[in-house]
Specification:
The complex is a heterodimer of chains A (114) and B (110). Chain A has 114 residues and is mostly beta strands. Chain A is built from no helices and twelve strands. The chains are: A mainly beta (114), B mainly beta (110).
C-alpha cells in the first residue's frame, strides 16, 4: 500500500540552527515527491518537488530536499532556520499518472526557539 | 496562470444544518480535485478525490458528500452537520505538477 511517514510530530530548533525533517514513503513505482508548508490558518504552499534527475532539489525559502531511493526517503533540510519558518510541514508522494492521487504524511510541526 | 478559489473562509453553522462549500479552479482543464479536512493539531485527511466530471472517490465513510458538476468546480456538502464535522477544509487541484491548495474554510459546528 502507498504511504508516507513523517516520524517527527513536533520539532523545536534554535533560530540559526540547521534543520532536517524526515520523510519516508512506500510506493509501488517511482514516485513524484513533494514538500509543502502550512502557516497557521492558511492553505498549503508547495516548497519543492522531485520528479526525476538530480536527486538534490532546491526549493523556495532556502529549503532543499534529497531523494534517496535506497532508503525510500525524501528529507527536507535548511542550513539556517529563521523564526518565520515556524509552521507545519507536509511530505507528499504521487504517481506518474493523472489518475493517481497524491498522498500526504501526517505533518511535522516546526517551532523555532529564539 | 492557475488559481484556485475556495469560499467561504470561515463558517459557523448549527448542528443539523446543511453545508455547501465551493471550490473553483481557473487556468487549467481536467485537473484532479481534492477535498481534505484538517482537525485541530492533526494532519490532512483526504475526504474526496475526483479525476473528472461526475467522478468522485470517497476515501472515508462520513457525513459528507462531494460533487463535481463542472470540470473546474468541486463542491463539498452535507445534509445535516454534526459537531464532529468541525475543522479546516482544504480544496486542492493537481495535474502531475503537485497539488495546489485553496486558502481553506474554517468550519465550526455549534
Amino acid at each position: 500500500a502507498q504511504s508516507v511517514t513523517q516520524p517527527d510530530i513536533h520539532i523545536t530548533v534554535s533560530e540559526g540552527a540547521s534543520l532536517e525533517l524526515r520523510c519516508n514513503y512506500s510506493y509501488g513505482a517511482t514516485p513524484y515527491l513533494f514538500w509543502y508548508v502550512q502557516s497557521p490558518g492558511q492553505g498549503l504552499q508547495l516548497l519543492l518537488k522531485y520528479f526525476s534527475g538530480d536527486t538534490l532539489v532546491q526549493g523556495i525559502k532556502g529549503f532543499e530536499a534529497e531523494f534517496k531511493r535506497s532508503q525510500s526517503s525524501f528529507n527536507l533540510r535548511k542550513p539556517s532556520v529563521h523564526w518565520s519558518d515556524a509552521a507545519e510541514y507536509f511530505c507528499a508522494v504521487g504517481a506518474r499518472s493523472s489518475a493517481s492521487k497524491i498522498i500526504f504524511g501526517s505533518g511535522t510541526r516546526l517551532s523555532i526557539r529564539p | 496562470s492557475q488559481t484556485i478559489h475556495q469560499w467561504p473562509a470561515t463558517l459557523v453553522q448549527p448542528v443539523g444544518s446543511p453545508l455547501s462549500l465551493e471550490c473553483t479552479v481557473e487556468g487549467t482543464s481536467n485537473p484532479n480535485l481534492y477535498w481534505y479536512r484538517q482537525a485541530a493539531g492533526r494532519g490532512l485527511q483526504l475526504l474526496f478525490y475526483s479525476v473528472g466530471i461526475g467522478q468522485i472517490s470517497s476515501e472515508v465513510p462520513q457525513n459528507l458528500s462531494a460533487s463535481r458538476p463542472q470540470d473546474r468546480q468541486f463542491i463539498l456538502s452535507s445534509k445535516k452537520l454534526l459537531l464532529s464535522d468541525s475543522g479546516f477544509y482544504l480544496c486542492a487541484w493537481e495535474k502531475l505538477l503537485g497539488a495546489f491548495f485553496g486558502q481553506g474554510t474554517r468550519l465550526t459546528v455549534v
